[in-house]
Every structure is written in structure tokens, then in C-alpha cells.
Recover the amino acids of this structure.
């Protein structure tokens, strides 16, 4: 595990621990209940978050959280992880990223700090490809964030998800950790 790192905006990114999962779940709950950023309809249980966390950590993949130095209680203001892209063995070194920031904190550098922290911890020995699947409706900020970190758009699935009484496109972006950044 890598230590915490605080950036110029006062955002500290560190490896998540099991006790962070309540804060992670609280952030994700907002996105499930109020947005189309995730296609989940049901908020995952604590048990589901614990299983996901353990699976990611056992695979030696990053799961990071962010706090703000200005926050006296150091509560979680965002999280990011590299999860499974597909379960078949041929995809073992391909991952799908997830990055969520507490509502109201966009534009404060939390997403960038999380992305940097997650990428710094991604081991090219067990991760080659990172795929981002971004809901096109309201996902402009996520597309811009991924672009800043060297992800390129590789496709779009039209009307692939249905939530909040609308059909939603997904933008696919990809970063190859084995290719040098340009």
C-alpha cells in the first residue's frame, strides 16, 4: 500500500480501508438515487461493498479515497478503484475504473487527485488496459477528466441503458498502461 499524498488543493488521497466503506457507500447512494451516472437501480449493501473492496484488494488493484484537509473530521469526499472489466480469463489484465466525488465538490480537484492516485497505484504487471464506461448524459466532466489523464474515446454504445425514463448512451474510453503517454 502506498501512503497518503496531499495535493495543492488540499485533497489527500490514500488507500481505502474497510472502515471507509460507509463513506464510499454514502457517496454512491446519491448517484444511484439521483443520477444516471450509474445504471444501478438499487443501492448496494455494506456486505456488497465489502466483497467488492476485498476482491479489488486481493487482485492487487487500487481502491483509493480522498479527504479534504479543510474538513476537520476527514470524511470521505470521493473514491476511485480499478474493478473487473470482464470476468473471463483473457481479460485478466483489463480493468474498469470507477471514480465518484461527493456531490457539491466538483471542480475542487478531487476527481483529478483520485485519478492520479489510482493511476499511480496501478501496477503494469497486473493491469494493462483501463476502460472507462461513462454515461453520456451528464458525463461531460468525466469525459474531460479521463481525457486529461490520457484516456482516448474508443466508442459509443447508443441507447444502451435505461434509467430515469430515458435511454442513455455510454462513451467508452481506454488507457493502455503499456504504451508511453504522448
Amino acid at each position: 500500500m502506498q501512503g497518503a499524498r496531499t495535493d495543492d488543493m488540499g485533497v489527500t488521497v490514500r488507500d481505502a480501508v474497510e472502515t471507509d466503506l460507509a463513506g464510499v457507500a454514502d457517496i454512491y447512494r446519491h448517484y444511484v438515487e439521483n443520477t444516471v451516472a450509474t445504471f444501478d437501480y438499487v443501492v448496494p449493501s455494506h456486505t456488497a461493498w465489502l466483497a467488492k473492496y476485498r476482491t479489488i484488494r486481493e487482485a492487487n488493484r487500487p481502491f483509493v479515497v480522498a479527504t479534504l484537509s479543510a474538513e476537520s473530521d476527514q470524511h470521505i469526499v470521493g473514491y476511485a478503484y480499478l474493478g473487473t472489466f470482464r470476468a473471463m480469463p483473457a481479460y485478466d489484465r483489463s480493468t474498469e475504473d470507477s471514480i465518484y466525488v461527493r456531490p457539491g465538490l466538483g471542480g475542487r480537484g478531487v476527481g483529478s487527485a483520485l485519478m492520479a492516485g489510482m493511476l499511480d497505484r496501478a501496477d503494469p504487471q497486473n493491469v494493462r488496459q483501463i476502460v472507462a464506461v461513462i454515461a453520456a448524459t451528464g458525463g461531460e466532466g468525466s469525459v474531460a477528466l479521463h481525457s486529461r489523464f490520457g484516456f482516448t474515446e474508443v466508442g459509443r454504445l447508443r441507447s444502451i441503458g435505461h434509467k430515469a425514463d430515458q435511454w442513455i448512451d455510454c462513451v467508452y474510453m481506454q488507457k493502455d498502461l503499456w504504451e508511453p503517454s504522448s
Summary: The chain has four helices and eight strands. The radius of gyration is 16 Å.
